C-alpha cells in the first residue's frame, strides 16, 4: 500500500481494529507504507479523540463496539476450545442462560438438547442456533435490538429476566481483570448484571486476550463467578492472578 494522508491512515487503522480487535505497530507500518513512529502518532491521536481504541505496548486494542460477525472471525478456534470446555457444564434439564457473545454462540451450536432443557438468551444468533432440537426449548428475551452485537438489550429485556431463575448463566466478557468482567457498552453490562441477578451459578468463558484488561462498564464481579474458562491450560501462568478469585478454572 502506498503512503496515505493522515485522515486516510487513521480511517484504515480504525477499520482494521474493528475487524481484528488489535494491531501491531510493525504490521500497520508495513501495510501503510509509513514509519512505526507515524503509526504511533496516529494511534495516539485516535485514542485521545475517543476513537474507541486503547494504546498498548507495540500497538493498540479496539475497545469500541465490534459487529458480531467481526468478533466471530476473531480467534474462532480458541473460542471453539472454550465452548468445548463449557459443554460438560450444560445440564440435560432445567433452565440456563446464554449471553449474546460469539463464544456462547459457539456453545449454543454444540448443545444437543438430549433432555428437557430451557435456554434463555438475548443473542439473536444463539437463539437461531438452538432451534429445532428435540428436548430443548429456546427462549429469546424481549428488548431493543443492538445491531452492533446482534443482541437484545434495554429495560424490557432486563424486566423479563427478573421473572426467571436460571441454574447457570454462561457468559463471556469484553475484558477481565482482578475485579471482574467488563463490557464495551453500558447496555451490555446492564443486561449481564440482570442475567447474573437471576442465576444461581455464573460461568465465564473468554479468550485469554481478555485477561488483564478493562472496558467501559463493569458487569459481573468475581465474588459472583463460579467458573472461569479460557483456551489455555488451567495451569497457565496467565491464569495465576485468578486462581484465588474463582472456585474453578478450566
SSE layout and pairing:
Blueprint: H1 6-20, E1 22-24, H2 25-32, H3 36-48, E2 53-56, E3 59-62, H4 68-73, H5 76-86, E4 94-98, H6 102-110, E5 117-121, H7 124-129, E6 136-140, E7 144-146, E8 151-153, H8 155-161, E9 168-171, E10 175-177, E11 180-183, H9 186-197, E12 202-205, E13 217-221, E14 227-229, E15 248-249
Parallel strand pairs: 4-5, 4-9, 5-6, 9-12, 12-14, 14-15
Antiparallel strand pairs: 1-3, 2-3, 7-8, 10-11, 11-13
By CATH, the superfamily of the largest domain comes out as Translation initiation factor eif-2b, domain 2
Number of domains: 2
H/E order of the elements?
A: HEHHEEHHEHEHEEEHEEEHEEEE
Distance between the termini: 43 Å
Shape: globular
Overall residue-averaged pLDDT value = 89
Number of strands: 15
Helical content stands at: 25-40%
Per CATH, the class of the largest domain reads Alpha Beta
Low-pLDDT sequence parts: none
CATH topology label of the largest domain: Rossmann fold
Rg, nearest Å: 19 Å
* Approximate strand percentage: 15-25%
* Individual helix count: 9
Structural class: alpha/beta
Amino acid at each position: 500500500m502506498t503512503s496515505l494522508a493522515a485522515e486516510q491512515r487513521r480511517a484504515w487503522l480504525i477499520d482494521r481494529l474493528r475487524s481484528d480487535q488489535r494491531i501491531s505497530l510493525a504490521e500497520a507500518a508495513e501495510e501503510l507504507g509509513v514509519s512505526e513512529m507515524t503509526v504511533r502518532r496516529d494511534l495516539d491521536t485516535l485514542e485521545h479523540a475517543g476513537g474507541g481504541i486503547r494504546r498498548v505496548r507495540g500497538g493498540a486494542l479496539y475497545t469500541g463496539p465490534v459487529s458480531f460477525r467481526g468478533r466471530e472471525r476473531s480467534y474462532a478456534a480458541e473460542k471453539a476450545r472454550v465452548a468445548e470446555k463449557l459443554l460438560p457444564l450444560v445440564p440435560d434439564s432445567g433452565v440456563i442462560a446464554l449471553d449474546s457473545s460469539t463464544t456462547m454462540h459457539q456453545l449454543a451450536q454444540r448443545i444437543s438438547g438430549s433432555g428437557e432443557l430451557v435456554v434463555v438468551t438475548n443473542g439473536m444468533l444463539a437463539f437461531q442456533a438452538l432451534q429445532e432440537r428435540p428436548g430443548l426449548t429456546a427462549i429469546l428475551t424481549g428488548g431493543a435490538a443492538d445491531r452492533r452485537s446482534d443482541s437484545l438489550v434495554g429495560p424490557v429485556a432486563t424486566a423479563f429476566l427478573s421473572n426467571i431463575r436460571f441454574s447457570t448463566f454462561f457468559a463471556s466478557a469484553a475484558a477481565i481483570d482482578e475485579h471482574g468482567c467488563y463490557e464495551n457498552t453500558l447496555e451490555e453490562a446492564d443486561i449481564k448484571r440482570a442475567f447474573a441477578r437471576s442465576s444461581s451459578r455464573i460461568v465465564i468463558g473468554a479468550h485469554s486476550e481478555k485477561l488483564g484488561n478493562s472496558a467501559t462498564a463493569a458487569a459481573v464481579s468475581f465474588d459472583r463467578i463460579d467458573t472461569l474458562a479460557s483456551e489455555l491450560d488451567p495451569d497457565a501462568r496467565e491464569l495465576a492472578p485468578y486462581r484465588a478469585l474463582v472456585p474453578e478454572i478450566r
